[in-house]
Amino acid sequence: MRSDDLLTSVFPDQAACLENVVGERDVPSHPLVDQTLDDCLHDAMDSATWLALLHRIEQGQVRLIARDLPAPSPLAMEILNAHPYAFLDDAPLEERRTQAVRNRRWTDPSSPDDLGALDAKAIADVLAEAWPRVRNADEMHEALMALGCVTQTEALQGNGAAERDNGTAMAALTFQPGDEPALNGAWTPWLHALAASGRAFLCETAPAVGAPASGTGLWVPVERLPQFRLVYPGADRTGFPEGTSPNNTGVPDEDSADDALAGLLHARLSGLGPVTPEVLAAPLSLSLPTVHAALARLEAQGAVLRGRFTPSATADEWCDRHLLARIHRYTIRRLRRDIEPVERQDFMRFLLEWQHLTPDTRLQGPDAVFEAVAQLEGFDAAAAAWEGQLLPARVTDYSPSWLDDLCRAGKVVWTRLAGQANATGGPVRSTPIVLLPRRHLAVWTTLPSLAGDPEISPRAEKVHAALRRHGAMFFDELVTDARLLPTELENALGELVSAGLVNADSFAGLRALLLPATQRISPGKRRGRGGFRPATMDEAGRWAALRKAGAPSSVDVDSADAVTALTPAAQDPSRQPAHTRRLRTDPATLEHIAHVLLRRYGVVFWRILEREPDWLPPWRDLLQVFHRMEARGEIRGGRFVGGLSGEQFALPEAIPLLRGIRKRPLDGIWVAVSAADPVNLVGTVLPGDKVPSLATNRLVFKDGLPVATLIGGDVTVTPSLSAEDHAAVAIALQSRR
What is the pLDDT of residue 345? Predict the structure, then answer.
């Protein structure tokens, strides 16, 4: 009721009856209406690209080509599978023609081979359902009509003919008394009865040129006699009177042998499931070229699909599109049914172990640093938090020299991906920095940036130009080339780091910039905590300019203006959002980010992205990638964490760990982490108020639940903790590892 009242007060014409609205509806200028229109135009739909495409078509920049496809195109699929309210008529959903076109995964042009990841049990179940279950002569006639014909071998096997070579067989059948067929389920007595009554006949086929003789006849319903005369003009028909031509057969009349053969093969495929052309042609005594031509004809009509569907397939198979859609649904349903969702507390227990934050799962040794960096790839954290808290919390006895060695070896790189639009100073301890495997740096720099080119000072521009002109340079070389004092060069490098334009070979370069200027210039022989001497600019190695992706195309910019004009706020510049057009992310980059998120969390859902930086692609873009990965069998989709809405996806190796955590009793493990850590999910996944993701704030977990927080120097403890637990919390909050 409240929502209806709010809609009436905000948008009266929307709630009014159409008969009472005169002329066009007046769209009010209200924040809720403006935001709804903006979400519909830019989030639910990509109207900007649509308008840009129409402009390009109108200007002759895009050429339209008509093609007959075996399946609907991605654009047509959106229309065919629209929600019921998108249609003007009131036909029931189950009666719509579009429901027969459930083939999202095999119309995706970026994954044409995804159909190989179908479950063998799902294939067997669908075959058991597709093969006729005959109990009397009338059902035998219906089976003949559905399958087109039945071979002698299939007639002897009867209801058990759906058994496949992989050992899967049809479920046991039950019959009413008196319906049991003779010969242990064989169809032969019923077929002879149909032949005696003139409803079927045995067709002895002559093998085509190049086809091996099958050695068996085909049982054919009399209604398909015209079809078989076209396919087998010289066949010997036993048990059927010459000159008789049935009327009103119910089978479409074919004008040519090609149409007749395509209709026969389509009927056979409706009961056989995924088969190779050889298996299809041999019992029918047809040549392979003839069968291939007929299957291609059916493929062009969208009736059958080609691929390697069974797990052991070594050659292309063909399958009826409806059976294939059902196999795919059964595969996804079975995989998702195997998983029982865990509570959010158990998910946090799993995540703490997955992130190597519990005492038993922490990593050890210099090589473990790269493993930790790979799991945290692309995570935006404060510069001081990386070596102060994130890495020491995951690697036992962490040493800064281990990270320096990885950077110097070219395995790890540090940078700021989303630099400041106006970088007026150097980095501070809270500056967001990411650590990446260097081989993936090019992928991350292709992310579209909405900030544009940052504004930097003349000195910083001078240093940046030198690095672009000469390539990587040491600090002393930059001092000579840029003709700047060391202090001036340090400030210029700090400004370029804040803008995300340069980085150094070693993490020592960033470490030195975070130090006060006096310590940076004259470190002396003073040692820091743990005996590690503070870094100097001379130890940073070479400084280099980062290669960024190209600027967005003019089409994207123009389309943004076109869509903005559709909103009521278009005429008021003060009410227009700063960026109304979301730039498109490369599909390969999207898939890489999806893999990164899965490695980081094990299980991903839309609320996880609230802890990720704003410059990551939105969930709606990643969701399409996750669907493709699930269809390929790389990940699992389902309900893994209870109490959360939306789709969820998990790595296969994470699911057994989740199950184990659910069965394991609570062990009272204390884990203290920085609020800048990716496991800070309080207020998003876990209930409670959000803890600001600052390096100085901390959280303490016990058995996966937050029991204490340190925010701005104020400690908040759960009231249910005992006095002994209060002492343990105080120790955990002071610890940095």
Answer: 92
Per-residue pLDDT of 62-92, as tens digits, reads 988 887 665 667 677 767 666 666 666 666 5
Separation between Cα atoms, residue 620 and residue 25, nearest integer Å? 31
Q: Which residue did the predictor score with more confidence, 11 or 324?
A: 324
Parallel, antiparallel or unpaired: strands 412-415 and 432-437: antiparallel
Residue 310 has which token pair?
Answer: 């069974």
What tokens appear for 359 in the block?
A: 């005492």
Burial class of residue 315 (count of CB atoms within 10 Å of its CB; 0-12, 13-18, 19+): exposed
Lowest mean pLDDT, pick from 113-122, 313-322, 452-461: 113-122
651-686 burial, b for 16+ CB within 10 Å, e for fewer? Answer: beebbebbbebeeeeeeebbbbbbbbbbbbbbeebb
Annotate 388-424 with three-state secondary structure: HHHHHHHEECCCHHHHHHHHHCCCEEEECCCCCCECC
| Beta-ladder partners of 150 | 219
Residue 586: predicted pLDDT: 84
**pLDDT (tens digit per residue) in 610-653:** 888 888 888 888 998 998 898 888 898 888 998 888 889 999 99
Is the CB of residue 640 less than 8 Å from the CB of residue 650?
A: yes
347 alpha-carbon distance from chain centroid: 21
Domain boundaries, the chain: 115-336, 344-569
Residue 245 to residue 225: CA distance in whole angstroms = 8
Burial class (CB in 10 A: 0-12, 13-18, 19+), 623: middle
Q: φ and ψ at 638, to 5 degrees?
A: 160, -160
Task: Find out whether 685 and 351 touch, Cβ atoms under 8 Å.
Answer: no
Q: What is the pTM of this model?
A: 0.61
